[in-house]
Amino acid sequence: MRGTLKPPRLRDNCFALPQGVDWIPVSEALTRLETALTPVVQSETLLVDQAAGRVLTENLSAKRATPPHPNAAVDGYGFAHCATGYGPQYLPLVKGRAAAGHPYAGTVPKGSALRILTGAPLPEGVDTVVLEEDCTIDGQAIAFHGPIKPGTNTRCAGEDRAKGVPILTAGHRLRAPDLALLAATGHEAVPVLRPLRVAVMSTGDELRDLGGATEPGHVFDANRPMLRALLTRWGHEVIDLGRWPDNPDSIRTALDQGARADAIMTSGGASAGEEDHISALLQAEGRLHAWRIALKPGRPLVLAQWHGTPVFGLPGNPVAAFVCALLFARPALELMSGAGWSSPLRFTVPAAFAKSKKPGRTEYPRARLTSRGEVEVFTSEGSGRISGLSWADGLVELPMEAAEITPGTAVTYLPYAGFGL
Ligand code: AMP
Ligand code: MG
After folding, report:
1. Which of 207, 275, 386 to mutate to test the pocket of ligand 1 (most atoms within 8 A of CB)?
2. How far apart are CA 287 and CA 303, in angstroms?
3. pLDDT at 223 over 60
């Protein structure tokens, strides 16, 4: 049986809240989510060229020093420092030159200089380089003003990273600069996790796909393009399950299709109304836990399992769906993908707005930094105001207890960039 028999991906009751818990604060929801989930994906080896966005599974060290040889940092003339001093310096030029990829094979005698270009390995006899612009040259010799510090305009072998020193750690998601570091330190292929596969679906009889005909009462599906782009940006593989009407049979079919993914993300139909078939079906045939999280915008966030696959049931309102995806789905999926739990960047900045806020829930108005380094919020708080999401470059986090915010009050600003966008 070993080999085919696998333990369930999640504990049966992993999303259950203790008896009697009704509303939970955002911070508690995050802690509960972090403890409920574990990494689920396998590793593979990929060429560095193909590894952008993937998560490393091992700590890596430099296989090669960078730079691999001492070299010139500028175009100029190289010589032995010990033969120079104060005041005007005159050095005869030796024949030939050293250029990047074309090392000078000979030795430069003490008291002479050699034409050397940026990136060229320093030849025997050269430890210092004078910048071309600081010299006069007649073809036979160079003249410049001393003193010049020893080692000027040169780079030592391994001054960036020596061979064998650590460069990147397991769990790191590779970005473009990391690929440069891997290449420079001699890594051709790297051990990485396969991407997390996340199935995305929208639900609602009123929804239509772009390009389709609309009749009165129809709205375009705004969540799927948004959620797909978020997931792709976060490095996951998206399985688009499409858009489904509000009936249990359709949604059952969709969830069955999604069960081959590592996680399912739904939007819409997650409340407790008569047309909220996501929650009804997950309640009847899956494992449903509707977390009533004390936040705005946001309706109950549905956390469930469909035949062992975790389901993140986001609210249908695009604003609430976006905020819940950033706050809850992102760190949860990061954890499942092997990159570890992540918290957004938070900056304290003065408010450029006034607001009275009732205590008891955390609010996330859509926000944007002004050129004066203050943060302003979108005028309407309605969670149907999709344009506010697009207007913003981040969120403000107004904590449970916050009450009266006046211009100048220090508030917490969470840039979209800190959510990996
Ligand atoms: P629901 O969560 O299904 O009750 O939907 C709440 C609101 O969000 C309704 O006004 C829906 O029309 C709207 N909505 C739900 N899903 C989407 C979607 N994918 N795109 C745009 N609006 C949506
Ligand atoms: Mg609906």
Report:
1. 207
2. 8
3. yes
Mutate to test the pocket of ligand 1, among 205, 228, 267, 323 (most ligand atoms within 8 A of CB): 267
Per mean pLDDT, which range of 16-30, 32-46, 57-71, 185-199 is the poorest? Answer: 16-30
Which CATH class, in words, describes the domain spanning 26-40+196-336? alpha beta
Each residue's pLDDT tens digit, 46-59: 999 999 999 999 99
CA distance 287 to 112: 81
- Cα of 245 vs centre of ligand 2, distance in Å, is 9
pLDDT of residue 298: 78
Q: Which fold has domain 347-419?
A: Beta-clip (2.40.340)
Sign of CA dihedral 317, 319, 324, 326: positive
Q: What band does 21 get if pLDDT is binned at 50, 70 and 90?
A: low
Largest CA distance in the chain: 92
Output DSSP code: residue 329: I
Domains of the chain by residue range: 26-40+196-336, 43-66+159-193, 71-155, 347-419
- Assigned CATH topology for domain 71-155: Molybdopterin biosynthesis moeA protein; domain 3 (2.170.190)
For residue 267, which ligand has an atom nearest its CA? 1
The Å distance, Cα 257 to ligand 1 centre, comes to: 22
Positive or negative CA dihedral for 60, 61, 64, 66? positive
How far is the C-alpha of 384 from the C-alpha of 406, rounded, in Å?
Answer: 26
CATH code of the region 43-66+159-193: 3.90.105.10
Position 236 scores a pLDDT of: 96
pTM over the 0.85 mark: yes
Ligand 1 centroid to residue 316 C-alpha, Å: 4
Instruction: Say if ligand 1 is within 6 A of residue 298 CB.
Output: no
